[in-house]
What we know:
Elements: E1 3-10, E2 19-24, H1 37-41, H2 51-60, E3 67-71, H3 81-89, E4 94-99, H4 104-112, E5 118-122, H5 130-134, H6 141-153, E6 157-164, H7 171-180, E7 186-191, H8 208-218, E8 224-228
Parallel strand pairs: 2-3, 3-4, 4-5, 5-6, 6-7, 7-8
Antiparallel strand pairs: 1-2
Amino acid sequence: MQIHGFNKLTLLDYPGHLAATIFLGSCNMRCPFCQNASLVINPSAQPSIPVSDVLANLQKRTNILEGVCISGGEPTIYPDLPEFIKDIKALGFKVKLDTNGTNPALIKALVKESLLDYIAMDIKNSKDKYALTSGNPIINLDLIDESVAYLLTSPLDYEFRTTIVKELHTKEDILSIGEWIKGAKAYYLQSYQDSGDILAPGLSSHTKETLTHFAMLLAPFVGQVSLRGVD
Length: 231
């Protein structure tokens, strides 16, 4: 388990809960708009935080925090993720997992063991443009589709989300995604923002008006469509 970031308090990462966020290194995608590029490209060069230190800090904050968000990178590439979550759950916290959906077997196992309370799964783009948008030319869409199908029928709280980039996402892509995740509880369109740690600088965001239009196009497919990162 490679922990390279620990946000001790967030009001944003876990909807409806005061939470801490743990950032794990490494990822099996290379999304050009990735805002944690240093964690993806060269995680070994980033400062590492011992698991024991994170757990000790969480233990001290049990009367303050309600949940813990595990993000990345991509958390599901770590075989020891279940044991790590068990340690967090033993402290009494709810756990939210951020994932790209490439490991549906592990997602299902975590849910079966009651180790997750919320999942946020990234939908990178329409299926036709997934390899381009994920930066992985050999991406296995069957695995991602399996994760989508599982969440659509799961009683667990979840959301789908897409970071919308002007150079990558069109109206046609948005409609295709809507058809793909039809029946979803919640879908968030996140406006692209340059964090300063971007994998491929030079990208831009759509206007608020365009994002609002995209949300209207999705309304017939999804129970709740909302925008994030829009002023």
